[in-house]
């Protein structure tokens, strides 16, 4: 692989039986690959022995090279070696001690939500070093040296750590996994090993439950902005299926156990979950009850000896269900008419009477959307989360966390659409002009960017409020705003996929290839607009809830 070639050496490999090409000064042996090349072998034979960089970048994106490099690259041109030395490395970030850190979460025991220290908004810090492609609006603006009160060196370090993993080990394979409707189990396991699962619960980093920690951020520094950027960077894969596979079930199924589960239960089941050995999901929605949670019918009756609940009912559209060992399940313990005051939440373990079957859906293919039936399932009373008939509070507390997760993903997916479009519009020519030179294309990009940036600024503000307020106050005061932002994020996401598809044209209509992310995200939009509270319910709730809260705060009309 480390062989050096001159252009004259490469030129000798110009036959169908011995076919080399050059892409970006690296040399590839395509002799065997030509027969399986999806673009055809003749097109490769026409560039045999030559530098085909221009043609390559016309038809492919970076993921293809990353994926095929290990098997096809045989060396590099001698010219590359000569130039390699002076290549400027981005300046390393200044040591943490040299910078003033903004958010210093305190780790008092008994405080569940990471609370920022007093420094959080006192004085402005220097902007962080630039990071990423520097395409405007393709990353949050603090990646591009904008000043921000929310981020410090530990966020920059996590950003680099996650991006490296995503770009090298996830993104090149995402299309394959989506088509297979399954992500290898090893990837989920790595989520545990890398300490990411433990950091995604909206609580202080739980070192008492796992020995795994995140390499670039010490547990006591972990805050909600780390959690946000972890989800954000994972979403750069441009696959709702992948993100939901890794955090969709866990991120909403596990927090209620940690926050409302009895100590013994938590200590028994959490370590295996946080290591990535066991999986957990949230089971609320039913064939006949979605956003209308108060209407659910899956029943749990106390056994005569009072030691078990006997659960009977169905759950539908449950993310990750087919792979799960544990189900955080909303059940009716009250009378059929009891509404929201007859709901409880149980941690149901995969045991006799629990059946799961995979559902076929429009989008998020690799997320394992599941239909679950519970038939006379015996659940120990110790598995009750919170108090009997007070499960509505557990469900509501969880909604803010779930919705913020959805918002983060939608906004990054919107950025992915934007970024892909900018890159494509700068190489694709129509009517003798690059797409970027057509005002109609720039107009589409502008409408995407303005929605992304405005929504993201609202998101950062709300995450900051969650961090400052603590869980109960956040639940009472921010529900309306978070619901409004969820609707804002899903409409932005839908708009961006629609406009991106128009820019990519036929490439966004067929699966795979350069338009793969756009085609997939277009199909994923409904999986964001409907669950976690549909767009219509979110908009209505945003006003109803805010009016109620502000009335209590003394609103004058
Ligand atoms: C390292 C060398 C190459 C590899 C690994 C490679 C791989 C691939 C793959 C995986 C696809 C499927 C579409 C996708 O997933 O993007 C594809 C499509 C294609 N490739 Fe290549 N390719 C290589 C070089 C080239 C070169 C040098 C040319 C042109 C001279 C070329 C022309 C095409 C065309 C026209 C398509 C079809 C694009 C479409 O469907 O729109 N490829 N290639």
UniProtKB/TrEMBL annotation:
PROSITE patterns: CYTOCHROME_B5_2 (PS50255)
Cofactor annotation: FAD
InterPro entries, alphabetized: Acyl-CoA_dehydrogenase, Acyl-CoA_Oxase/DH_mid-dom, Acyl-CoA_Oxase/DH_mid-dom_sf, AcylCo_DH-like_C, AcylCo_DH/oxidase_C, AcylCoA_DH/ox_N, AcylCoA_DH/ox_N_sf, AcylCoA_DH/oxidase_NM_dom_sf
Record key words, sorted: FAD, Flavoprotein, Oxidoreductase
Keyword field contains Flavoprotein: yes
Region (Disordered): 76-102
Segments forming domain Cytochrome b5 heme-binding: 2-78
Domain of life: Eukaryota
PANTHER family registered for this protein in UniProt: ACYL-COA DEHYDROGENASE FAMILY PROTEIN (AFU_ORTHOLOGUE AFUA_6G10880)-RELATED, MEDIUM-CHAIN SPECIFIC ACYL-COA DEHYDROGENASE, MITOCHONDRIAL-RELATED
Family (UniProt): Belongs to the acyl-CoA dehydrogenase family.
Name of the molecule in the record: Cytochrome b5 heme-binding domain-containing protein
Lineage: Eukaryota, Fungi, Dikarya, Ascomycota, Pezizomycotina
